[in-house]
Sequence to fold (806 residues):
Amino acid sequence: MTTNTVFLLFCAVLLVLGGVAFTLSRAKASRVRATGTAMHAQPDQYAWFAVLATAGPALLVSALGAFALLLMGAEIPTLYLLSASLIIATIGLVMGLSQVRPDFHARRAIEGVIRKLLAAAAMISILTTLGILLSIITEALRFFQMHSFWDFVTGTTWNPGASFLSAAGRGEEGGSAAQFGSIPLFAGTFMITLIAMLVAIPFGLGAAIYMVEFAPMRIRKAAKPVIEVLAGIPTVVYGVFAALTVAPLVVDIAGLFGLDASYSNALAPGLVMGIMIIPFISSLSDDVINSVPNSLREGALALGITKGEMVRNVVVPAAAPGIISASLLAVSRALGETMIVVMAAGMRPNLTANPLEDMTTVTVSIVAALTGDQEFESAQTLSAFALGLVLFVVTLTLNVVSVFMIRRFREKYRVNNL
Amino acid sequence: MSQSFEEISAQLKKRHRRSARMKWMTMGALILSAAFLVVFISDMVVRGWPAFQQAQLQVEVSYDEQSQKLPLAAVDEDVRPLISRGFFRSLPREMENNPELMGTTQTRWVIADSRVDQFLKGNEDRLRPADKETLQALVEDGRAALKFNTTFFTTGDSKMPELAGIASAAIGTVMTMLVTMAVCFPIGVMTAVYLEEFAPDNRLTQLIEININNLAAVPSILFGLLGLAIYISFFGVPRSSPLVGGLTLALMTLPVIIISTRAALRSVPDSIRHAAFGVGCSRWQVVRDHVLPVSLPGILTGSIIGLAQAMGETAPLIIVGMVAFIPDASISITDASTVMPAQIFTWASEPNSAFAEKTAGGILVLLAVLIFLNALAVWLRNKFERRW
Fold:
């Protein structure tokens, strides 16, 4: 018998046992109730409790067994494991049936099981964060055993290409040794992020201010979905747009001014990333500006100032913490954005301040390190995890600061919907 | 200190002008943002429209023994270089499947080579002069034309642009999304129900809440690193499979579903809960029979938006190896597969310019699906949303 048939058989038997548990305990409960005895729960609830008692422990045991089988490499034959689970299911069935008594709170027992199940589901999000942290940190530590942390942080040359030679034990022949200095990558990342923010913050904020303060309801209702469509476009599509349309355009325009631009310049991905982030900033700022109390606006207007002065001197300063928080989130979004830069930015680490040259970013290097035909143990592959660790720490810090700012705004104006 | 009336009214005029200028500037920001969208969509449509057309040639195909052995012999020598190599490759199988064709000569439309395709679309000119003359003659006879490209929707990836299609990527997307939703919809809804309806207000609950908000802002590529290190290296899930891609995307989509489900649950007024408790329901009975049914449209809306987001995601899938060359789709969640955004990415990096229109064509299909999903979500929200 193959594993699949055994597994199917196990499921079938468990289903049958569950069905038996349901019908038997419901019949028993109905019988007891028919005699006129008052019971703590309905017959159906006793029946469901019996089903839970039958299937729950059995599934738990088989899951634990499968886990041990896969992870610890324990030698438990699948057949034994499944039959043990079935025996446990039978015991559970008998126990469940014996619990069909007038003084047993079946409903409360079911409630307890469901509460634990829901709590277990909630723990998965914690496990995810732990999983990201653990996977990144362990691999990054292995990388830092091979190359010094100090060189990684302060080095200005990123040249991982030679590392596969040393992994193959031929480090001496490869000529130049692999170098992992991450400064050029971060310089490129920050340059592209800066360009993106220079596009996204004025446009996003301007659109939000117009929609909240000036636009008639009709325009506001029509414009919001249009901006949201921008947010729903996949990043790979923006990447194609940046690489095929914007980058040649930038080269042509730079040529008009007598400047020499690379086809994988940093400006094109930066501009397109800015467009991508506009809806992000505009919808967050929209919410914030909307929740500035109207009494502030009315008070300002009552003193005789114009609407523009009110926006500039009253509304925007009041909403500033929220706007800054939105911008920080947008920066963290831009730092971690991958597809646009993979498709439109360069592959060459380049420490320069000229956005018309090609530059590479942290995320491009992560993708490059993990899509090559490198073995998993090589320093180049592991360097992706070191970069990922830095990226995680930076974005996490930005997010925490942003949450802190929005909380201050919320407390100041007692806004509850942010 | 004292200002004359003229001074004040001049100043006031200036102030109002500045106010109006601000209004126009912010309006300009909004209009330009919308203009970006228009430019962007029209750019994609202009680039991608030709992908839905494919040059075909009407030629005489002779089905005889010789062409079974040497398929090139089935057509005239002078049109041979104009026809797709894929047609010749499929010829022997076609004859095997239809024995009655043997010995006949049929005049039929066949797929042209991509150079012919590009020439007819006026893009580039890489045909040899002799071939070009033949083609011109065919065009004048009406025997070479651009027709609707069904191949694009029925085949997988190919190294020959005229045979490349999105079918296998679409199947890969469906398989991956099935895995994603099967994992993250139940877990997401359960987490949201726990946090909104069951959880005590203690440190652990606060930790879970902060954690979910943070997960929503973690760059997607880091989920790819998690998938690579945990699913592939540790658990040994097959690389490039919809299983590993779906599980990775599920973790990424989880916060979206949790946050929108919580919002939907929170919008159910407490009076409904109190009424249910009042007639003696337990907490789970209140949730199952009253809160969940009422908030279901909101939950579905959030899940569809999460699904659309996961469908467009590429970065984590590149890391777990889902950018693969898949000519034939397989309906299994453990076989190597690719998804639509990854297929677009692959085509975009092909040097052959015939793939550029395939890229944009794939984008149009993907955008159509995503816009449909988002419209569905909006429709659901408008139809079933209740104001309390």
Summary: Residues 232 and 362 of chain A are 24 Å apart (CA to CA).
